Amino acid sequence: MTTKMRSEIAEQPAALRATLDALLPRVGEVEQLAGQTRQLLFIARGTSDNAAVYGRYLAEAHTGRLSTLAAPSIATTYKRKLDLDGVLAVALSQSGRTEEIVETLAWAKDCGARTVAITNGGEQSPLAQAADLALCTLAGEEKAVPATKTYTTQLAALAVLGLGLGADVDAADLQRVPDAVEKLIAEPGDLDAIVEGLADKPGVVVSGRGLAFSTALELALKLKEACYLHAMGLSYADLLHGPIAVVDEDTPAILVAAGEGPTLAGTVALAERVTGAGASAFTVGGGTALSSVATAALNGPDLPEWVAPLGLIVPGQLLTEALARRLGIDPDAPRGLNKVTQTD
């Protein structure tokens, strides 16, 4: 039987097309609001926080704006007021109903920030209602607990945000994303080999850098949520500062990279170091440069680095779903999780 998670992975090309069709005409609205600001503050938790990491790297690498990930507890627990004049606060929530995120966005506005909401919850969701501008994704209802199409459409909304911030990129690249994702779903690469390579392992290190770091974090989260693996998501720079000691024959590495860009060479070198130490290096993306040094490889999208994360996660989603089934776990309803998580 096809799982809900697998069905929703397959719905991503259509969800991305609908979201981009709805949001690309609104670049001018983003530009007008962002013109009153100079830096960004991303407010999110969980999968949305991983999407925010992509937003941060995109903003800093391609718009020249300082960007920060918020600590919502400053607003909700410590209740400290900060000077956010000149800040564009961007809150992300799949449902638009996570009270902590709604409260933190309202706090940011009260502190002087201009505000943007990115949500699949619609214009009437509490988060959208709290924002100066709402960029609502059109992923449709997501029934599986692990987020798939709501995550990739969040990335699409962040890419549109980047265009509104004046990113030095080609907007036409976004139009190629749905087809690239469709191809990855049809041809993910060495999926079965990697599932078997992870099936008897207690843990895995997932690593990437720069714009691909968000994918590493999200894939690690998915493997924890749906497969109950001890999955550690790290920048490869942080991995080399000590945690690489945990990578061995019982703890493989999954290394993620776009097919181009300044972090690819370092990812290739890390894969060679991992296999040289006798551990398995499973890879996602990175073109032939990375796959040629891998133990087994998942394909990446034929996309420029700035939009590659919209495709890079897709083989990882397929891996998570297949590995969960291989382990006898229902990926649609992992233990201890709900679709909407409330935190204080």
UniProtKB/TrEMBL annotation:
GO biological process: carbohydrate derivative metabolic process
InterPro entries xrefs: GlmS/AgaS_SIS, GlmS/FrlB_SIS, SIS_dom, SIS_dom_sf
SUPFAM superfamilies, sorted: SIS domain (SSF53697)
Keywords: Aminotransferase, Repeat, Transferase
Protein name: Glutamine--fructose-6-phosphate transaminase (Isomerizing)
Gene3D superfamilies in UniProt: Glucose-6-phosphate isomerase like protein, domain 1
Domain SIS, chain residue ranges per copy: 29-172, 194-329
One Pfam family it belongs to: SIS
Top-level lineage group: Bacteria
Classification of source organism: Bacteria, Bacillati, Actinomycetota, Actinomycetes, Streptosporangiales
